[in-house]
C-alpha cells in the first residue's frame, strides 16, 4: 500500500504523466479515453477504479471518455447487465454524453477488415478444433506448429469465411485466424483467433450474426474507429499489446491508439472477479448482484456507500504499474470520511430496554431540538419527541457494572443526548430473572443536556420515545469472506463468512427515520452508519448497516468503543 494524503487526490500517476507529455508535445488535439465493460455481469469496485481513471483523465485534460460495451460474446451477455452498467457509471458521477458505443456497432466494419486481412494473406480459415488449436500452440519454451490449413489459397479462405457468416457451419467447426508467426515468443502472436462461430442471438444485433469477433480483434479496432488516444486497461492485457499493435498496423484503420496498462485493484476480504460474483449469485450465497455484501457498485450503493467515498478511495489508492493488494479498511476509511461530514445523526435502538421516568408527567410530550450533525452546523437540527416512557439500548445498562462501564447502572446518573439527565432507581425483572424495565427519575433542571451546577455524567446515551418510536428491521453486515485472501487455500467458498449478515427485528427508531429515502445514509448515533434498504415499504422500515463508526478490523481503530 502506498502512503498518500487524501488532500492531494489528483496527484500524477504514470498514466497521467504520459497523457500530460502527449498534450505538451501536441500529439493529440483532444484526449479520448474509454471505459470498455463486457456486459456479462455487474460492475464492481475494481471497475470503479478504471472508471475513475478513464473519466477522470478525460475531465482533467479537457477531453472525453466513451462508454463502450465490449459485447462480442452473446452467450454470456444480457440487457440487464447493460442497463445496470449504465446506471452504475452515472451514479458514480460520470457522463459519457453522446459517446455511448458498442463493439457490435462495428461488426460490419470489422468483418470487412477481416476480409481485407484474408486478401492480404494475413488471415486464414482454420478447420482444427479448439482442442487441436491448443495442442498446436506450443508452450512458453517450445514453438507452436503450423495448422495444416495455414496455407489455404486466398480464394478458398474468402469463400469459407463468407459461408461461416452465412451460417453454413455449426459452432466450433471453423475459426478465422491471423497469419502471424507460430514460433513467436509471445503466444498471443501465434496465429490468434479473430472470429468464431457462435449461433446465438445477440442483445443488440439479434440474429444478424453467427460469427463474432474475439476481444483481440474487436478491441483495438473499436478504439481506432472512435479515435481513442489512450486505451487504458489492466496488466493482464500487456501481453496482448503486440497483437493490438499488429492489427492496428495491418489494417486501414482511421487512427492509431496506444494501449497502456495499469495494475488492477485487489482488495482484502474481497473477490473481484465477475465469474466468481456470478457464482455467488447463482448458487444463492447472496441474494443478488446488489446484495449489500457484494463488492459490486450496486451492492455498495445499496449498503449505503456514497459515490463520493468510492471516488475518494480511487483517488487515494492511485494508479500503479505493479500488482498489489489494498486493505478493504482503506475503502471503509474513505467512506467514513465522507459520511462523517454528510450523514445526519439519528437515534435508533437496536436492542431495546424500556425506561420509565417515574417523575415525568404521563401525558407530557416535549420536542427536543437535536443537531443533525455536530460537524456541520449548517445541517440544522430536528426535533425528537420525549416522553415518560423511553427505549434505550440494552447494552447501555448493567446491573453489576464492571470497572470501566460508565453507562447506566443502579443508582447511577447518565445523560440522554439532547434531553435530560436520568438516574436509575429500580430494576424490573421478568419471571426468568431477565431485566425488562428500568424505573428512573429525570432532573428537570438539565433540559437540553446540561446541568446548572456543572455536573457531568460520564456517559451520554441515545434513546427513543416509546410512544413515538417506529419499528424497524436492521441488517448488520460484515465482510463476505473470513480471510484477507479468500480462496488462498484452494476452496474459495469454504472461506465465506457465515456471519456476514445478521438480521435484527424489533428495533425501534426515532420518527424522523420513517421519512429517510433510499440513497440517504444516516448515522445512528453511537452505532454506525445506516442506509434505508429498497426492501423498505410503508410500515416496514429496513436499514442496512453501511459501516460501524470505527474500524474494528484493522489496527487503526482497535482501541475499542468509547463510552461517551
Ligand atoms: P473481471 O475480471 O471482474 O471479470 P473483466 O476485466 O473481465 O473483469 P471487463 O468488463 O472486461 O471485466 O472490464 C472493463 C474494464 O475494467 C477493463 O478495462 C478492465 O481492465 C477494467 N477492470 C476490470 N477489473 C478491474 C480491477 N479489479 N481493477 C481495475 N480495473 C479493472
Ligand atoms: Mg474482460
Task: Tell me about this structure.
The protein has 564 residues and is an alpha/beta fold. The protein has three domains: 14-105 and 216-334, Rossmann fold (3-Layer(aba) Sandwich); 107-111 and 119-214, Glutamyl-tRNA Synthetase, Domain 3 (Glutamyl-tRNA Synthetase, domain 3, Alpha-Beta Complex); 344-559, Beta Barrel (Ribosomal Protein L25, Chain P). Helices cover 24% and strands 22% of the residues. It contains twelve helices and 25 strands. The protein has helices at residues 14-24, 45-60, 79-91, 107-119, 130-136, 154-165, 215-226, 241-250, 274-282, 297-303, 307-317, 328-342, and strands spanning 32-35, 64-69, 100-102, 123-126, 175-178, 193-197, 211-213, 230-234, 258-262, 345-346, 348-349, 352-357, 366-371, 381-386, 389-393, 413-416, 421-429, 435-443, 460-461, 464-465, 470-477, 501-509, 522-524, 528-532, 541-547. A hairpin with a 3-residue loop joins β23 (522-524) and β24. α2 packs across α11 (307-317) and α11 packs across α12 (328-342). The longest helix is centred in the first third of the chain and has 16 residues, at 45-60. It starts with 13 loop residues before the first helix and ends in a 17-residue tail after the last strand. The model is unreliable at 1-9 and 553-564 (pLDDT under 50). Bound molecules: adenosine-5'-triphosphate and magnesium ion (MG). Adenosine-5'-triphosphate binds next to α2, β8 and α9.
Amino acid at each position: 500500500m502506498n502512503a498518500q494524503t487524501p488532500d492531494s487526490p489528483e496527484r500524477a500517476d504514470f498514466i497521467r504523466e504520459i497523457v500530460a507529455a502527449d498534450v505538451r508535445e501536441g500529439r493529440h488535439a483532444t484526449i479520448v479515453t474509454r471505459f470498455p465493460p463486457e456486459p456479462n455481469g455487474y460492475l464492481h469496485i475494481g471497475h470503479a477504479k478504471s472508471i475513475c481513471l478513464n473519466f477522470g483523465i478525460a475531465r482533467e485534460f479537457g477531453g472525453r471518455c466513451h462508454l463502450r460495451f465490449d459485447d462480442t460474446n452473446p452467450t454470456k451477455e444480457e440487457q440487464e447487465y447493460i442497463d445496470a452498467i449504465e446506471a452504475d457509471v452515472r451514479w458514480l458521477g460520470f457522463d459519457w454524453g453522446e459517446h455511448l458505443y458498442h463493439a457490435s456497432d462495428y461488426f460490419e466494419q470489422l468483418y470487412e477488415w477481416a476480409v481485407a486481412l484474408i486478401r492480404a494473406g494475413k488471415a486464414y480459415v482454420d478447420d482444427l478444433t479448439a482442442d487441436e488449436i491448443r495442442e498446436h500452440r506450443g508452450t512458453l519454451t517450445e514453438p507452436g506448429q503450423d495448422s495444416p490449413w495455414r496455407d489455404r489459397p486466398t480464394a478458398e479462405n474468402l469463400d469459407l469465411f463468407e459461408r461461416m457468416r452465412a451460417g453454413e457451419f455449426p459452432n466450433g467447426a471453423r475459426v478465422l485466424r491471423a497469419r502471424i508467426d507460430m514460433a513467436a515468443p509471445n503466444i498471443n502472436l501465434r496465429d490468434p483467433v479473430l472470429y468464431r462461430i457462435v449461433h446465438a442471438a445477440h442483445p443488440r444485433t439479434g440474429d444478424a450474426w453467427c460469427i463474432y469477433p474475439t476481444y483481440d480483434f474487436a478491441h483495438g479496432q473499436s478504439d481506432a474507429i472512435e479515435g481513442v488516444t489512450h486505451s487504458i486497461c489492466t496488466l493482464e492485457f500487456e501481453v496482448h499489446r503486440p497483437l493490438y499493435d499488429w492489427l492496428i498496423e495491418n489494417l486501414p484503420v482511421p487512427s492509431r491508439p496506444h494501449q497502456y496498462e495499469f495494475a488492477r485493484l485487489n482488495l482484502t476480504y474481497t473477490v473481484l472477479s465477475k465469474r466468481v460474483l456470478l457464482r455467488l449469485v447463482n448458487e444463492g450465497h447472496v441474494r443478488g448482484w446488489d446484495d449489500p455484501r457484494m463488492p459490486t457498485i450496486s451492492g455498495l450503493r445499496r449498503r449505503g456507500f456514497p459515490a463520493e467515498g468510492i471516488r475518494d478511495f480511487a483517488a487515494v489508492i492511485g494508479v500503479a504499474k505493479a500488482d498489489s493488494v489494498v486493505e478493504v479498511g482503506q475503502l471503509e476509511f474513505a467512506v467514513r470520511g465522507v459520511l462523517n461530514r454528510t450523514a445526519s445523526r439519528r437515534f435508533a435502538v437496536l436492542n431495546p430496554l424500556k425506561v420509565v421516568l417515574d417523575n415525568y408527567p404521563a401525558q407530557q410530550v416535549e420536542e427536543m431540538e437535536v443537531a443533525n450533525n455536530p460537524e456541520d452546523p449548517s445541517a440544522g437540527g430536528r426535533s425528537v419527541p420525549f416522553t415518560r416512557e423511553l427505549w434505550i439500548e440494552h447494552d447501555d445498562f448493567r446491573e453489576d457494572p464492571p470497572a470501566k462501564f460508565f453507562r447506566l447502572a443502579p443508582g447511577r446518573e447518565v445523560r440522554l443526548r439532547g434531553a435530560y439527565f436520568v438516574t436509575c432507581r429500580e430494576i424490573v425483572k421478568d419471571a426468568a430473572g431477565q431485566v425488562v424495565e428500568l424505573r428512573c427519575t429525570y432532573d428537570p433542571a438539565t433540559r437540553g443536556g446540561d446541568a446548572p451546577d456543572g455536573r457531568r455524567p460520564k456517559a451520554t446515551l441515545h434513546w427513543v420515545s416509546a410512544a413515538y418510536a417506529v419499528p424497524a428491521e436492521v441488517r448488520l453486515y460484515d465482510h463476505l469472506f473470513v480471510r484477507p485472501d479468500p480462496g488462498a487455500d484452494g476452496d474459495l467458498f469454504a472461506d465465506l463468512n457465515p456471519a456476514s449478515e445478521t438480521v435484527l427485528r424489533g428495533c425501534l427508531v426515532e420518527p424522523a427515520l420513517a421519512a429517510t429515502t433510499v440513497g440517504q445514509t444516516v448515522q445512528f448515533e453511537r452505532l454506525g452508519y445506516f442506509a434505508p434498504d429498497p426492501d423498505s415499504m410503508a410500515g416496514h422500515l429496513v436499514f442496512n448497516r453501511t459501516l460501524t463508526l470505527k474500524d474494528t478490523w484493522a489496527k487503526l481503530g482497535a482501541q475499542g468503543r468509547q463510552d461517551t
